[in-house]
Amino acid sequence: MLAIGIFALSSFSFNSAPPSKPFVVVLDAGHGGKDTGNTGNGYKEDEISLSIVLKIGAELEKHPDIKVIYTRTKDVFLELHERAAIANKADADLFVSVHCNAHSSQAYGTETFVLGLHKSQANFEIAKKENEVIFLEENYEETYAGFDPNSPASLIGLTLLQEEYLDQSIMLAGLIQNNFTNTLKRKDRSVKQAGFWVLHNTYMPSVLIETGFLTNKQEGKYLNSAKGQTEMAQEIAKAIISYKNNLSLATTKSQNPVIEEKEMDQAIETTDEKIYKDVVFKVQLAASSKRLDTKPSNFKGLKDVSRNKEDGLYKYYYGETSDYNKIQLMKTFAQEKGFTSCYIVAFKKGEKRKLSEVLKSEDK
Ligand SMILES: [Zn+2]
User: Fold this and answer.
1) Average pLDDT, whole number, for the chain?
2) Ligand 1 center from residue 47 Cα (angstroms)
3) pTM for the predicted model, two decimal places
4) Which residues pair with 287 in a beta bridge?
5) How many other CB atoms are found less than 10 A from the CB of residue 153?
6) Neighbouring-strand partners of residue 281
7) CA 101 – ligand 1 centroid, Å
């Protein structure tokens, strides 16, 4: 085996090619200085987000091919547009902004945002809260000409720049949410879109992570603890590394790769398995009285679509696996292809079962 290895090294010149440009990740701890962020249960969003970000950075810096840049490493105030400017100047490959959520209820769970038009009032409210820091900035009227965080309409123009990076942003957001849910058993509030100012000015794939609710008694306590911060940071770092590995093939060919099935397959391969015995998961794409051919061109290019007649309706499914992690990634992929309201269904011994019950009833 050793001899073969040496032979391969000396025979192919690409093995000795000079190291390529490092993969640059900009880590952005939300808030800071006179902007404390939310202070649910007395915990401080600006301190917690900074602590998590520094831990993510320490993890990523163990990889010599990754370069980490922080928008802040101390308790200082930064204007929103400065954060994006730091990332653009560094010609970064990724921008990751870390925050903590707040709500008047005992809501809890993690959600990761990419820039887009908010699809619900709740998403708009979160973006509004994170955007409101603008009012603490001097000269905000000039800096953000015409932008009003309180107006949903003024967010529409913000989505344009990020559009071409949307595929990659959703890919990273999906990996992050999967890690939170599967490894840390945090409640999954899913990948969402909303108009965050801090994301709209960056020229690279960008996500904003709401790591959980400080206003929730248990989640606030968890996020304020060293254990909670370390665990969240490790899962975010792991997701960034999988993302980098998944895209490394595509990036050599083009500046802005879209996620192809190949990359999706790679993501699936590098994600830990989570097998549920005797269970088959599928992604339900659509239900219709019409009998459609399951060829890819009928399903936005998705392969392996199957059809089943149930209660007089044709149900169309994507994927078929006992691996819950795999089906979650396939769901993200299907959503990205345009099936925005698709969802995971579970079958046990051929019978459709409630997903929540299947997930609860198994040990794993
Ligand atoms: Zn925040």
Assistant:
1) 83
2) 11
3) 0.66
4) 315
5) 7
6) 321, 346
7) 7
